[in-house]
Write a structure and sequence with these properties.
The protein is about 30% helix and about 15% strand. By secondary structure, the protein is α/β, with parallel strands linked by helices. Among the domains are: about 90 residues, no CATH class; about 120 residues, Nucleotidyltransferase, domain 5, CATH 3.30.420. The protein has a five-stranded mixed β-sheet with strand order 6-5-4-7-8, covered by helices on one side. Strands 1-2-3 form a three-stranded antiparallel β-sheet, with no helix packed on it. A hairpin with a 4-residue loop joins strand 1 and strand 2. Helix 3 crosses helix 9, helix 5 crosses helix 9 and helix 7 crosses helix 8. It is globular, with a radius of gyration of 23 Å. The two termini are about 40 Å apart.
């Protein structure tokens, strides 16, 4: 039987299809996603009126007949005050969607024929939209936890006499990504994923993460790391010793968290090559989203990403005016 990802059902949209659309078609597509509840007809973001609005064709804007507020299809969204045309943005989203292990800003800039700075901000705006819509409900049932370390590489010196023991060296940018994955009830992969950035796997932070995000008495699967020892007090803890086996005789394993780690490594080494700690949380959440949507067709994923980007009151606080100095000043750490 053919795997779903290899079938035609998985590829319902392509760069070729989007490239064949004209600017008006792309604009109408934005409208259909932004105002899907009103069959693509505009809704005033200020007063919520769905009455027939005045359309200013030269500026592609609407003026509300009730409150006289002027708005567009991207007003109050991630793409607020955008300078790129709608077709370029839509192409960026479908390229981002189809890159199952992430895509570098340099490659995106070449594909879209835009500046590297433009591609960098655009890709991070898409990642930010994924950050703003993470699941809030507590995980339950069978939940897996694991950590993957980032930023711990020290380049060895040329001469062997100048080299140091890298295991004991101080690494100021060393971070660990803790992934929580709730197994799917149908037994196929995981359905929900959350990620957290820590400086190390330790009991205090692990307990805070579990208490805030996992329902009591749930079953948690981890490896033998001592940071997870205290979870036994409030959860049904199952552990697997990876020095001996990948899965225990009773089915205990954290293979879904390992799947997250594997995909993140492929993005880190194969696409981005280097990830700074400042935006590490955005990259980790991107891989979590890709893992959760891996069994959806790419048209559904593209529409979901675009709907998140076009959500009301989601103007980017960190990437609107980024190259003019509006930058993040601290990394996102902790539970």
């Amino acid at each position: 039987m053919q795997h779903f990802l290899l079938s035609s059902k998985a590829r319902t949209v392509s760069v070729k299809k989007i490239a064949s659309m004209n600017e008006k078609d792309c604009y109408e597509y934005f409208k259909s996603i932004r105002w899907s509840d009103n069959k693509g007809e505009p809704i005033c973001p200020s007063c919520g009126s769905a009455n027939s609005h005045y359309f200013i064709e030269g500026r592609l804007q609407y003026r509300c007949k009730d409150c006289f507020h002027t708005f567009s299809v991207t007003s109050g969204t991630i793409f607020h005050s955008h300078k790129l045309d709608f077709k370029t943005i839509l192409l960026a989203i479908v390229i981002f969607t189809n890159a199952t292990k992430g895509i570098s800003s340099l490659q995106l800039s070449r594909d879209l024929d835009v500046q590297y700075k433009t591609a960098w901000v655009l890709s991070h705006k898409i990642r930010e939209s994924l950050m703003e819509h993470k699941p809030n409900e507590k995980f339950q049932g069978v939940v897996e936890m694991d950590g993957v370390y980032v930023g711990n590489h020290i380049r060895p010196a040329n001469n062997i006499n100048d080299r140091i023991d890298r295991r004991k060296a101080f690494k100021p940018n060393k971070r660990v990504i803790i992934s929580l994955r709730e197994r799917n009830l149908q037994g196929k992969g995981a359905s929900k994923t959350k990620t957290f950035i820590l400086k190390s796997e330790n009991n205090s932070d692990i307990n805070k993460i579990a208490k805030a995000n996992i329902a009591l008495n749930s079953q948690i699967h981890t490896d033998e790391n001592s940071a997870y020892d205290d979870l036994l007090a409030h959860y049904n803890l199952k552990r697997v010793n990876h020095q001996i086996e990948y899965s225990g005789v009773n089915g205990e394993n954290n293979n879904q968290s390992e799947s997250f780690n594997s995909r993140f490594r492929r993005m880190q080494y194969g696409q981005l090559h280097r990830i700074g700690v400042l935006y590490l949380s955005n990259y980790a959440n991107e891989i979590a989203y890709r893992e959760d949507t891996r069994r959806l067709d790419n048209r559904s994923i593209m529409d979901d990403i675009l709907s998140r980007c076009l959500a009301n009151n989601s103007v980017s606080n960190e990437f609107c005016g980024y190259w003019q100095g509006n930058k993040r000043v601290a990394e996102r750490l902790g539970a």
